[in-house]
Amino acid sequence: LQYAKRTNNKRYSYDTQKQDNGTWEDGQSRPSSERGPQLAAFYLEGVACIRGREDAEISSALEIIRVVCPTLQHLRITGPPVHHPDSSADHVLRHFADIRSIKLHYAVPGSMFSALALLPRLEVLDVELQSLIRPMEYLFPRNAFSALQELTVRGKSPMDLERFLQGFTSNRISSIKLWIRSCYERSIMGCVEALSLLPCAKTLTKLNLEVYIFGRYDGDQSQDDMLSLNVLLQPLLSIHRLEEVILDLGEVEVIDTDLCSIAAAWPLLRSLKLYSWPFELNHDQRKISSPSNPLRRPSLLHVVDFASKMSSLESLGVEAAAVSLNELTKIEELVTNVAPQTNLVEFNCLISEEDRLKATLSRLFPKAALGLSAEQREAIRRARAAQDFNSIKAQRFPLPNNVPRV
């Protein structure tokens, strides 16, 4: 940080794990004599602190950045969790008057938000909540986050995330991303319901939800007990101005009627990414979904019908079920009876790249690039990685000790 004193360059990134000279926006290293007060962006990756002194050390680092980079607009710090939070960094943050974006990918103590909330030009905030035994009360002043437009919040405790959202008062936010992880459906739904009640919900245009329900075993839950998208959607259907939506879900059921609900509630939708993954647990645990009890998917026929009716839709990625010959015939009949949807440029929903199916869809979506779904692409990537690994193993090349066996 002491080197960031004399430069006309605008962005600097330093990785503490590599312990190099740092990298500028053009990808080149610079000697210390070229760093200075014109710095607009500072990224400190992988910061490690002495246990018990995390906040004091981070506070010291922020004070140096504030002094040597008075016009700083973008700040990102990543690192391990803060185990002993205090308010030593709060007073420093209040002096970053020109800051426009802050990304703190270490656990941020609740007290720090009182300082973040009063930054007058802060437009982008990306934070991880401090996980506490006692739930944190997030009480923001009425004029909190007055300029904020994009909010990303992570947290191991859904209770803390729910309380954070309940105390949030800003009404200018247009984009929200939440990471919700829990083994209880009610905890997940508490966060989703709090999101739908935000003052900014009525004008929200971008929504990114990563939801994972974990810790359940085969035999503990039946197919009917799995969290369904229908339940998850209910609080969100009141947000009518959404244009870009990403729903990245673990062990969540998705069926045909969910697409009907989305079409009715979000008529302005331009991009939809809807993924539901079988949740990969540790090697000594089992998944709730299995080949004999798979996650339900919407039919490709309903996915195609959805895309054809959403006239403003430009990009679609949905995990669909396998296509039968009878369903393929119905898709061909649909194509002959509806007008082409010419706004769609990306359709990543295929289970296989069968020529007959792609030819049919090309008639309905003439401008769209047709591709495999995200889960199919991941399956191919893993299969190729396993094949490459086995090929190397067959050649009897020595493997490093830290390489996991496939």
UniProtKB/TrEMBL annotation:
Residues 10-22 have a biased composition (Polar residues). InterPro entries: LRR_dom_sf. Transmembrane segments: none annotated. Gene3D superfamilies: Ribonuclease Inhibitor (3.80.10.10). Residues 1-35 are annotated as: Disordered. It comes from the Eukaryota. This is RNI-like protein. It comes from Polyporus arcularius HHB13444.
